């Protein structure tokens, strides 16, 4: 009989569910994020509560079977949020633990191969977010940027911005997932905000942003227009380097 393990959507919660599957000696397992859970017609369900000790035990066990780069792939793939990612990761982990040698890069296994593909997609999105994030100075003296990435890459870009902008307060907010990372000159923490229905992330609202920021936006737009030589425009190449879905983050595209 199939057992559905419901977890809280966190990576540690997923690892706890993996531990529970082994602990309960389950043969047929479905691990599902509580946000996507739908009551199955058959089988049983169990709610798994995140247990840091159990999650650490699974991670420690994986460390003995995989390289650090291969472990990173598991985390990157998890952040893809693909509806089937829990099944892919669970089957990959079963395969890794069942082998006496390191098979975490055995791409003949469909689940290991899928983890690698998801990792590449998430890694590409991470680098693009690091390149295309544009900050705007608020009246509170905080540099604010909003993003809506295809994958949940906020945890992956945190270190990049903490190193690059260590001398100023900043906030990067994921509008799609409704949480952000805030740096207060000392620490980075996760926060949630309520922008309201009237918030338009594509506009530099004078009620929210500093006057100097609005002036800078206008100057930058004017500069971009003045240096844009129409006869040399290659839109196909431009879109290849800066896909249209990222234009909403760029001041010069507004």
Summarize the structure.
This protein has helices spanning 11-23, 52-63, 68-78, 85-98, 110-132, 154-164, 211-227, 235-241, and strands at residues 3-7, 29-33, 44-47, 136-137, 143-147, 170-174, 179-183, 188-191. The chain is of the alpha/beta class and 254 residues long. It is elongated.
What distance separates the N and C termini?
55 Å
The share of residues in extended strands comes to: 5-15%
Mean pLDDT: 87
- Ranges with pLDDT <50 over ≥5 residues? none
Overall strand count: 8
Number of helices: 8
Spatial arrangement of strands, main beta sheet = 4-5-6-7-8
Q: Largest beta sheet, briefly?
A: 5 strands, mixed
Structural class designation = alpha/beta
Instruction: Characterize the overall form.
Output: elongated
Any idea what the radius of gyration is? 22 Å
> What helical percentage do the residues reach?
40-55%
Name the helix and strand elements from N-terminus to C-terminus, one letter apiece: EHEEHHHHEEHEEEHH
């Amino acid at each position: 009989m199939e057992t559905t393990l419901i977890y809280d959507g966190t990576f540690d919660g997923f690892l706890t569910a993996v531990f529970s599957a082994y602990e309960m000696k389950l043969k047929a397992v479905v691990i599902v994020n509580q946000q996507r859970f739908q009551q199955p017609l058959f089988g049983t369900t169990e709610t798994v509560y995140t247990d840091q000790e159990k999650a650490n035990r699974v991670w420690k066990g994986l460390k003995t079977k995989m390289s650090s780069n291969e472990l990173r792939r598991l985390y990157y793939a998890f952040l893809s949020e693909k509806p089937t990612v829990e099944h892919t990761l669970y089957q990959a982990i079963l395969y890794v633990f069942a082998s006496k040698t390191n098979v975490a890069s055995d791409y003949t296994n469909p689940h290991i191969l899928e983890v690698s593909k998801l990792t590449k997609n998430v890694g590409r999105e991470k680098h693009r977010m690091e390149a295309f994030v544009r900050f705007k100075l608020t009246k509170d003296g905080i540099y604010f940027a909003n993003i809506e990435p295809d994958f949940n890459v906020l945890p992956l870009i945190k270190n990049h911005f903490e190193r690059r902008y260590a001398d100023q307060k900043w906030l990067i907010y994921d509008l799609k997932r409704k949480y952000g990372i805030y740096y207060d000159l000392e620490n980075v923490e996760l926060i949630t905000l309520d922008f309201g229905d009237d918030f338009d992330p594509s506009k530099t609202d004078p009620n929210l942003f500093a006057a100097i920021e609005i002036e800078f936006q206008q100057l930058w737009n004017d500069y971009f227009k003045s240096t844009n030589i129409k006869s040399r425009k290659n839109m196909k190449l431009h879109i290849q380097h800066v896909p249209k879905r990222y234009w909403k983050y760029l001041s010069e595209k507004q």
